[in-house]
Design brief:
By secondary structure, the protein is an alpha/beta fold. It is built from eight helices and 13 strands.
Length: about 375
């Protein structure tokens, strides 16, 4: 047997070819890994982007009002105990066109309102609206929406002796839908010798609020109210008591006290938190390009399109700035613009006062949409 003396150069070549082979394997791996990584990045990247797009396109609050013959969602004359401020049909409103509009977001659809489904979701739960008469308005609408869906079930409306609390309970579901009147969210206390004191840094009802599964807060109009109607005689800030002060400053301090309460006390596992954005009034036709108009009495149609001629009221920016300090999960019912478009949805003279009202809203009517938006948010959170 001839022993082939392998020339070193050959050996070198062979070593080199092994080296090449190794490198090819390494390169192959690099290529394979690169393809996987690239594909993965692509896949997840596209997905993340898609999700972002879905989120963006599903801004419920950008949209317009469209006529919908299937509306209204209930017959308000069959809804018991509608507050005299909101009961437009009972007090003689004849133009019923305002009940026929559905809010249509620009880039997605709202889930269909399903009262029976919502009742199931609210089984055993307590939901509370805390705030002024605009919170009362939304509570009233939710009462009517749920009442219409619970036809098989007796429903009791309990006004407790405590007139600041309206408690609507749905037996068979163990659900309570409660409105608590606290116009400023912070406290008004009666002090001997002085009288009623609006306390900008005091919230005493928090223990009751914390027992609620869903909370919807609002405040604005009373801060801006002039002397005749205000329910306080003095304002207290820490230890200082004053006769009056810049109301915007007072609003900022009061709302900040509420934000501090939220940050300290809300338990995201127990309390779902909503804040009802500021709603507009329609006293000034100039706001919607009808400068001669001074109230809402002749308005029978919403504005078309998605924008309101005069833009957002300035207090909205003040509110948003303060709400930015909330560190707990919460959802802003951003209803300002969509409500601005509804100059037709106020009671006007069709209310128990028989005076012109372009501040509150008829029930049924616009507040039903605020509740549909809350429903949409709650069911999309469930996913
Ligand atoms: C609320 O909606 C309006 C109109 O779509 C928008 O201009 C505003 O930025 C929104 N505010 C927040 C806090 O999302
Ligand atoms: C009504 O209830 C609230 C909350 O429990 C309480 O702060 C308030 O003092 C009560 N008012 C009356 C008149 O009982
Ligand atoms: C509302 O009524 C229900 C049923 O009567 C009761 O259990 C609940 O404590 C009441 N809630 C408030 C805040 O009054
Ligand atoms: C209160 O009324 C006065 C005089 O009518 C007016 O100048 C002022 O702007 C009003 N203040 C508020 C907060 O509405
Ligand atoms: C409401 O506006 C109408 C028409 O613009 C006017 O005739 C009427 O006097 C106003 N009513 C009130 C209470 O402002």
């Amino acid at each position: 047997m001839v022993v082939v003396d392998v020339p070193s150069s050959f050996s070198h070549i062979e070593t080199y070819s092994y080296y090449l082979l190794d490198m090819m394997v390494v390169y192959a791996w690099i290529i394979v890994v690169t393809i996987f990584v690239a594909y993965g990045v692509h896949y997840y990247g596209v997905n993340a982007l898609q999700e972002k797009e879905d989120e963006e396109s599903c801004n419920f609050y950008e949209g317009s009002w469209v006529r919908d013959e299937s509306y209204p969602l209930y017959d308000s004359l069959a809804c018991p105990n509608i507050d005299y401020q909101f009961d437009c049909l009972k007090y003689g409103r004849q133009d019923l066109n305002f009940l026929k509009y559905r809010w249509q977001p620009n880039n997605c659809d709202l889930p269909r309102w399903d009262g029976k489904d919502f009742l199931e979701k609210l089984r055993g739960k307590k939901i509370m609206f805390v705030g002024d008469s605009i919170g009362h308005d939304q509570w009233q609408s939710l009462v009517c929406l749920l009442h219409a869906s619970a036809t098989q079930t007796p429903i009791i409306h309990t006004d407790s002796e405590n007139s600041s609390i309206h408690n609507f309970t749905i037996p068979g579901y163990g659900t309570s839908v409660i409105f608590m009147r606290q116009q400023y969210l912070v406290d008004i206390d009666y002090e001997d010798k002085i009288g009623r004191v609006l306390k900008l840094d005091s919230i005493k009802n928090g223990e009751l609020w914390k027992q609620m599964d869903i909370l919807v807060f609002n405040t604005w109009f009373w801060w801006n109210r002039n002397d005749s109607g205000k329910p306080w005689d003095y304002i207290q800030i820490a230890d200082k008591i004053v006769k009056d002060m810049d109301r915007i400053e007072a609003f900022k301090l009061g709302l900040t006290t509420w934000v501090d309460w939220v940050n300290a006390e809300i338990d995201p596992n127990k309390n779902k938190l909503f804040y009802q954005g500021i709603t507009p009034t329609h006293w000034k036709g100039a706001d919607w390009n009808e400068p001669q108009v001074r109230n809402c009495s002749m308005e029978t149609e919403p504005l078309s399109g998605s924008t309101y001629p005069s833009g957002l009221p300035p207090q909205v920016l003040i509110m948003e700035d303060i709400l930015k300090k909330i560190s707990k999960p919460f959802h802003l019912l951003n209803i300002t613009t969509l409500s601005q478009l509804r100059k037709d949805a106020h009671p006007s003279i069709y209310n128990g006062h028989k005076t012109m009202d372009c501040l509150h809203w008829c029930v049924g009517g616009l507040p039903d949409t605020w509740n549909l938006l809350m429903y949409a948010t709650l069911i999309s959170d469930d996913h």
